[in-house]
């Protein structure tokens, strides 16, 4: 085989290796990560035994995927490469999760955009179009989006225009009850729970009070009390099960000091004190939500890190980490199996950005080494050939 053939073969092998690494890092790595995830089972507890004894069927199970803080970059502070890299990561992760896991509903817990609070109408429309492309889904999956402080601004920045623009874009109202397969999901605009009497705050609190009344009446719908029947006569009826609260801000906690796990805040940040109405809800707003609704679970975002908290020794809260590489090296999302009598949760971790960078760097270093080595081999081969031609005796043949 000639040196030229060896060089061509080496180049083809190198090109194939580079293409393989690219395909793995940009496509296959998401399958490798998400294939390790699965839907959790549900512990229905004592009620399951009662139903089995009575011959009643098991309640339907709803499969829901929960993610948070996508932070699509805007036109002001977003670098084009940052947009390209991190948004491609979220798109591939989301589309791969839909293909492999097939959730019935996906909840995004706010901060969909990074610059929604100051986006111009044109920039807002562009950002919404990018979101719709990245998080496209079939009719078999419903997408439910909650509002966060980066979407409409912190309390002092939000106004009716920003809120209604968000609600129109995602065909939603920022505070409402969503009921699926006998499970009540309470969607809360937590940005408006400052309790200072602002117009949006008053509207949200009024809606929450009405939803609380309706839900409590649904839980007491079999009561024989005439007072309760009269109080609830015009109430909207929901399944008689405590709700699952979904919101952007976490309920009040002092810090992340008690948080553990792969996706918890870094150790040096866990003891930093949270600010009420900025990092977490105020104590007053948190207490009001828990007393009004007595939820069986609270799911929140905002901190970009994972945490599990038990409020008042009876109300569990899960903080869902950011879905974006820009906010953490190891994004994740929650898989939830929900029924009217129980639920199960599991966490699905996406590929780490540092792993992808390391693969590209090692491939690039290997490629540079081989590209340097190939001319050296070619030079040594040519030098040996010339030396052989000069020093080796020429054979003589006799002809008859």
From TrEMBL:
Q: Which residues form the Calcineurin-like phosphoesterase domain?
A: 63-305
User: Which InterPro entries does this entry report, sorted A to Z?
Assistant: Calcineurin-like_PHP, Metallo-depent_PP-like, MPP_MPPE1, PGAP5/Cdc1/Ted1
Indicate where this protein resides in the cell.
Endoplasmic reticulum-Golgi intermediate compartment membrane
What topology does it adopt in the membrane?
Multi-pass membrane protein
* TM helices/strands, residue ranges: 357-381
Cofactor (UniProt): Mn(2+)
Question: Which biological processes are named by the entry's GO terms?
Answer: endoplasmic reticulum to Golgi vesicle-mediated transport; GPI anchor biosynthetic process
Is the Thylakoid keyword given for this protein?
Answer: no
One MF term in GO for this entry? metal ion binding
Q: Which Pfam families match?
A: Metallophos
Q: Which UniProt keywords apply?
A: ER-Golgi transport, GPI-anchor biosynthesis, Hydrolase, Manganese, Membrane, Metal-binding, Transmembrane, Transmembrane helix, Transport
Coarse class of the protein's main subcellular location: endoplasmic reticulum
CC per GO annotation: endomembrane system; endoplasmic reticulum-Golgi intermediate compartment membrane
Q: Which PANTHER family match?
A: METALLO PHOSPHOESTERASE RELATED, METALLOPHOSPHOESTERASE 1
By sequence similarity, the record places it as follows: Belongs to the metallophosphoesterase superfamily. MPPE1 family.
Question: What task does this protein carry out?
Answer: Metallophosphoesterase that catalyzes the removal of a side-chain ethanolamine-phosphate (EtNP) from the second mannose of the GPI-anchor protein intermediate. Participates in the glycan remodeling steps of GPI-anchor maturation to allow an efficient transport of GPI-anchor proteins from the endoplasmic reticulum to the Golgi.
Name of the molecule in the record: Metallophosphoesterase 1
Species per Swiss-Prot/TrEMBL record? Salmo trutta (Brown trout)
Gene transcribed to yield this protein: LOC115157613
